[in-house]
Amino acid sequence: MKLIIGQFVPGDSIIHRMDPRAKLITVFIFVFIVFLANNPWTYGFLLAFTVLGILVSKVPFSFIYRGLKPVLFIIIFTFILNALFTRQGDVLISAGWFQLTTAGLKQAIFISIRLLAIIVVTTLLTLTTSPIAITDGLETLLKPLKKWRFPVHEFALMMSIALRFIPTLMEETEKIMKAQMARGVDFSSGSLVKRGKAIIPLLVPLFVGAFKRAEDLAMAMEARGYRGDVGRTKFRLLKWHGRDTGLLSVLAVLTAALILMRG
Amino acid sequence: MKSTSLRKNIMVALLAAIAFIIMFLQFPLPLFPTFLTIDLSDVPAIIGAIVYGPAAGIIIEAIKNLLHWLTSGSVTGVPIGEFANFLTGTVYILVSTWLFRKRKTFSSLISGMVAGTIVTAIVMSIANYFVIFPSYAYFLGFPIDAAVKMAQAANHSINDLFSLVVLGVLPFNIIKCIIISIIAIPIYARVRPRMNLNI
Fold it and tell me: Which among A205, A215, B32, B89 has most CB atoms closer than 10 A?
């Protein structure tokens, strides 16, 4: 079992240094305004914004490609489907049931740009922001929900604990798997029932181990005076800079341009 | 009082981390369309829900899907698959623990899980027909016919969205819930004596 947790690539570009709150807001709004685009101009703007983001972030293209690889097939698939199923406009190529029209080609290109823009921008967020920074950003952004008694702080705490312990628990999973394999458990072959049964001796020690760990961690936190978010000071402080306002202004300009230019 | 709630929060976080790890071990079922994959990541959530109440189970589902989205991205950028997974897990947990929490016996747990399986399969079929497939189609600009064609490769009697839901999604969710229940019960039975010592 070899996994890479998180796609975060440490770096020092202006996007890396931006406040996670600004980046989260941008991605959230961007996913919506992408759907405003409906003609070559507006799709051009989206593409320009996306390319600009890649260039400014200075993330090597190979990393973005790695993030895109699992969905590349879907984009190509969608492209082909849209090209084939749209039957309006002038016929470009026609061979039997196969027919490529201008409208189909246009539709296919637009949808692919839309998908690429959404995926690249969300990937840029996870590439340039560490999961822990995203959690901190979410905690501050969701603070208003406290009014409705949604436990924002506890949720953020649980998120960061889960993030912190994923590598540890993964190591433990691997250790248990090896220990059980040494006793003759076969995880990778056999029928569905067999594989299901094999997972029980893996999960039981994992749960019991996690329970002990939770016990220790709770004790350690209380010994250091943890008592919820009342009067808590933070090690990682979020600071809003000019560049964050800048990012939001660029987004506002993009939104305005999309609304003005859409046909 | 306070310490047990902190301990519970931490345990919920660790269960979510375990669920997240298990989520990567997903595999498609034979005879079903490839985009329906099964994974056992609901097992930690149901255990958490039995021990700490349904809210804990829902939080485990939420953290697991949020982490999955943050770390591996989503096919559409918009987390539809994660949302579907969250919905399945939540409905299943709510129904199965609702019956269990009244009497807290093994037979009520089993009847709760049976009810949970049936309700989840029905709710997810409705959600798939009206929300999930249409939203995939919308975000991907992907005609629903295409998903139907993909499914046809696995099962020839599927010829429209309705038959895809009835012949693909409905039995898939039933099998998924049955597998999860079958695995969760022995695990709970073995973990429970060790958990009670510490609460």
Answer: B89
